[in-house]
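Tutorial handout. Part one gives the primary structure; part two gives the three-dimensional structure as tokens.
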Amino acid sequence: MESLRHRFLDEERKAALQNFENLGFPTKKDEEYKYTNLKEITEKNYNFFPKESHNITKEQLDQLHLGEENFDWIVFVNGKLHKELSKVSIENVEFLSFNYALNDEKHKEVFDTYFNTIASKDTAFSNLNLAYCKYGFFLKVPKNVVIEKPIHIFYISQNQEENTFYNTRNLLIVEEGAKVEVIESHHNFDSTYVLTNSVTEIFTYPNAKADWHKLQNDNNTSYLIDNTFARQEKDSLTTVNTFSFGGKLVRNNLDFIHNGSNINSFMNGITIIGKDQLVDHHTAVHHNFPNCESYQNYKGIFDGNAHGVFNGKVFVDKIAQKTNAYQQNNNVLLSEGATIDTKPQLEIFADDVKCSHGCTVGQLNEDALFYLRARGISKKEAQALLLYAFANDAMQNIDIEPLKEKISKLLAEKLQVDLEF
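Part two.
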């Protein structure tokens, strides 16, 4: 017999699909997408129901790992959770695939309380995700439980004969005093196009710590629309790090909501792209209570005909006194064809705050380049070293050493510089 929850969710899905049809895909006429043309992805045909069969090998999976033998990892292939490819040792938590949790009456109260409560109701991609989501990751960390091992979530697409559309959904609940670190990565093994429309909801309770690291290094037939919403209660700390190195078009929508005092929010990003790639970061922090801090530091390096976008918003409510909000976006253009549109924004309605924002766009420092070359370093190596140093400070708050090393190696590969680890 169909549950009341199921019927209610079906109604939500129908309403979301109707909302999407009313909104339509964003175009450059929409203010939030004025610098990002989605026609390349929206004019293609996609299969919404991927073929489940695959022939992923252990060697292929090993190449995706960060050398994280001491991690836990969860592998989704073509939307389905594969326990035989995963390693889960965590205890004292509620962990399930999203689809199973969604259909399990035991988790009805959790989903009624959290599911789709902070995700945007008025954007096309969030509505489309709600209408079709059934793949993804659900984790609830109980009070005072500290998960020592980072958890790496792999979303893999393989053996698809048609262009494929995934609507993945993640739900993370970190209760009072708990701690967890999550790494998320997407990988397309086919030459057909993959469009992933992901929605993640993160809830961090008092004195809890949640870190979510996004490693975006997919191939050139991959598109990613990532929508992440984080709600924090008092005395909590939440970090979202976004490392964008691959994928044809990547759009990151990041929304932090403060729901208490003494909250700390950290957003860091490194983008290194070339050819005709596009990476667009849109961030927003809602300071709704006093004595909170937010820190945004995004670095971009663009070559070829690559296009970068950064639009960071900070909203400070009139009661949010003693707010400390920092926002910085620095970019280096390596070619005449590369472009960046950057727009940091502050909307402040309180009078006792410390808020700063800034952006820079330019080339490498010629004095520093001359200094290195005068010491026998070739021009190419000197440029790479300066770019590495430029990007490096955006990953200083990564606590996971294998992840920090992986990002350093990817930086070195992208910049073609020899580093010793």
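Part three, for discussion. Confidence is low (pLDDT under 50) at residues 1-5. The chain has nine helices and 20 strands.
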